[in-house]
Amino acid sequence: MLNNNHIEIIKSTIPLLESAGPALTQHFYQRMFSHNPELKDIFNMTHQKTGRQSVALFEAVAAYAKNIENLAALTTAVERIAHKHTSFNIKAEHYQIVGHHLIETLRELAPDAFTKEVEEAWTEAYLFLAQIFIDREEELYQLREKATGGWRGTRRFVVTDKKPESELVMSFVLTPEDGGKVLDYEVGQYLGVQVTPSKGENVEIRQYSLSQAPNGENYRISVKKEGNNSDQLGLVSHYLHDEVEVGAVIEILPPAGDFFYTEVNKPVVLISAGVGCTPMQAMLQQLAKDGKSDPVTYLHACENEQQHSFIDEVDTIVSAKGWNHRVWYREPLSAEGINNSSTGLMDLAQIKDALPTNVGHFYTCGPVIFMDHVVKQLESMGVERERIHYEVFGPHANL
Ligand code: HEM
What we know:
The chain is α/β, with parallel strands linked by helices. Strands 4-3-6-1-2-5 form a 6-stranded antiparallel β-sheet. A 6-stranded parallel β-sheet has the order 10-9-8-7-11-12, with helices on both faces. It is about 40% helix and about 20% strand. This is Flavohemoprotein.
């Protein structure tokens, strides 16, 4: 059990953790992957190369240390991470491995500061945090396993349709090979996709937003071709685009994610950039299906007409419903653009009067820089944080 003495010791080691920074992270991952190479099939090895996730785990531990007396401050983050972990099928035994390498890393890099008391305090603290995750993750696994169409771990799905949505985005419809139903999900959630790319060395798991409303029969994901496939950037998306055809079988983990639409009987604004429009398709379809009577606005920003995904699909829904719709092309290819399009970055001031800034709920998804840009604009128009719901694509920078 964690006691006050442990808490004091943990707090006193925060400066040590912070000063060691990237060296600690690097040592930890090198240690873990050399002793437990099987974990290379779980972690995104491209993120390891770019150092993205490496930072996330250690920042999470440091944030935990800082908030050790106020764990309620971490609830939202714990929920987000637990959902993410379940989409990798992380199990209780994995926590022991990670915990062991964390402790040994601290011992190896700070032998003088790492006294018996420090070791005991950190071990207790880690076990305490790990148990929070293990319990919540088990709850999520069981919920998904018991629901209609549900399952646990991976399940084989056949690609039953493959369709380009724009220059860089390809949709895949996935139907269970066993002919059974599929688990319903909240619109905004993602799937874990497990593949072994022909050009890779490991099993790879990635998350892709579900891009259609639930129908009980199949799933649709829409994948952006990332990078240029050099140095493994875009390894999985290139494999899916170039090599996975209709009829192929891929392993799927059940839907997960804490970013989703919640009905509130208020106007809704969906705001996305680039491939961030994928969860918005699921939301838009669901709102149409539900016969949402409050106004709905669909706003999207992308590079140009060729990179504009789901043009017809969105158009069909918003025209039938008479909903608001606007697009921003950063650098349009033609002078005319399409109906309701503007040039440049998304500028909400242009449509301020049409936005439900007093009561509406705003859902936004895209790269971090875009989200910052949007959230700042919304806040300057008086929209409170509680009415702004967002999902960052890619790992979060901190807990
Ligand atoms: C108490 C222990 C742990 C903490 C504090 C922690 C924290 C985190 C954080 C903050 C993220 C990023 C979440 C996001 O991007 O939204 C993450 C992702 C992840 N975690 Fe953990 N984690 C822990 C244990 C584990 C364990 C035991 C495993 C499996 C061996 C694991 C595997 C992963 C993987 C594979 C990802 C996604 C990485 C990626 O996309 O590159 N984590 N974790």
